[in-house]
Design goal:
Elements lengths: L1 H12 L9 H7 L2 H27 L5
């Protein structure tokens, strides 16, 4: 969550940060909302897969 918030603040704190990137990346990441959202979704997918792989191998018993 903190990483997504930090990435979302980059366009506000350093507006010239994405000027060296290709045009499509500049267009999408120039908005703090879209930058933070994309980062949050990607991290959620990565962490979710890692956590579900760990949980599947442990075999949790209920009851």
């Amino acid at each position: 969550m903190a990483i997504a918030l930090g990435v979302g603040l980059v366009p506000i704190v350093a507006p010239d940060f994405y000027h060296g990137f290709p045009g499509l990346v500049q267009t999408v990441m120039d908005s703090g909302i879209s930058a933070g959202t994309i980062t949050a979704v990607v991290l959620n997918l990565l962490v979710g897969r890692r956590a579900s792989g760990r949980a599947a191998g442990q075999g949790v018993q209920v009851g």
